[in-house]
Amino acid sequence: DAKTTQPPSMDCAEGRAANLPCNHSTISGNEYVYWYRQIHSQGPQYIIHGLKNNETNEMASLIITEDRKSSTLILPHATLRDTAVYYCIVRVRGGTSYGKLTFGQGTILTVHP
Amino acid sequence: EAQVTQNPRYLITVTGKKLTVTCSQNMNHEYMSWYRQDPGLGLRQIYYSMNVEVTDKGDVPEGYKVSRKEKRNFPLILESPSPNQTSLYFCASSVHWDSPLHFGNGTRLTVT
C-alpha cells in the first residue's frame, strides 16, 4: 500500500469547515483513499473513501486531485465533537494484495469554540 | 445492534502468564484484524484473518498468536506476555478485506 503524509496537527473554529490534507504521491491506479478518525482512545471510526471521483456522505466530503497524488477531507461545519485524530490510508482493492493495513500517525484536529 | 465486542476492556497481568483477549463480531464479516496502539507509534497491525482458518501476520506479530475457528470470533493470544506488550489493543472487522472497518472499543493491557 502507498505511504501517506499528513500534517501532525491542525486547528479549526467551531462552525467553520475543517480541511484536512493528505499526500499520497506514490498511489497507484487501483488504490483507494480511506479516512478514519479516532476520538480520544475509542476505536477508530470509518468516515469515507474514494478512488478518483469526489465523494460526499453524511459525515464529510472527500476531494481527490486529478493526478490522485493528494486528497482533502472536508468536515463542512466542524463541531467540538469532531476533535479527534484523523487517519488517511490508501489501500488496494482487488488484485493479489491482501489484508495488511498500515495506519500512519494521522492529524490531530482540534476544534475550538 | 451490529458491533465488534472485545473483552476484557482492562487487564493487568504479570510477565509470563498466558492470556487471551477475545474479539467477537455479529455482522457475519469475513475479515478480522488486531491492532496495537502505542504513544507516538500510531496503530500497528498485529495479525489479520481473511476468513475462517485463514490468518496472516501484520507488521508486529512477534509474541502474539491468533486463531479463526469460526467466523464471528478472532481471539488474540499472548502465550508469555512481556512488559513491552503493554498497550491499547483494538480488534476490527469488515465485510471483505477491502471494505470499511468496524472497530471494537479497545482493551487496555498492562503487563508488569
Task: Throw out a few tags for this protein.
heterodimer; A: 113 residues; mainly beta; 5-stranded mixed sheet; 4-stranded antiparallel sheet; 9 strands; globular; B: 112 residues; 7-stranded mixed sheet; 0% helix
Helix content of chain B: under 10%
Instruction: Measure the end-to-end span of chain A.
Output: 37 Å
- DSSP helical segment count of chain A: 0
Structural class of chain A: mainly beta
Number of helices of chain B: 0
Mean pLDDT of chain B: 95
Number of strands of chain B: 11
Described by the principal axes of the CA atoms, the overall outline of chain A is globular
> Would you report the number of β strands of chain A?
9
Strand order of the largest sheet of chain A: 1-9-8-3-4
What are the secondary-structure elements of chain A, in order, as H or E?
EEEEEEEEE
Main pleated sheet of chain A = 5 strands, mixed
Strand content of chain A: over 45%
Element order, helices and strands of chain B? EEEEEEEEEEE
Mean pLDDT of chain A: 90
In quaternary terms, these chains amount to heterodimer
**SS content category of chain B:** mainly beta
From the alpha-carbon coordinates, what is the Rg of chain A to the nearest angstrom?
Answer: 14 Å
* Unreliable sequence segments of chain A: none
**pLDDT < 50 stretches of chain B:** none
What's the short version?
The complex is a heterodimer of chains A (113) and B (112). Chain A is an all-beta fold and 113 residues long. Chain A is built from no helices and nine strands.
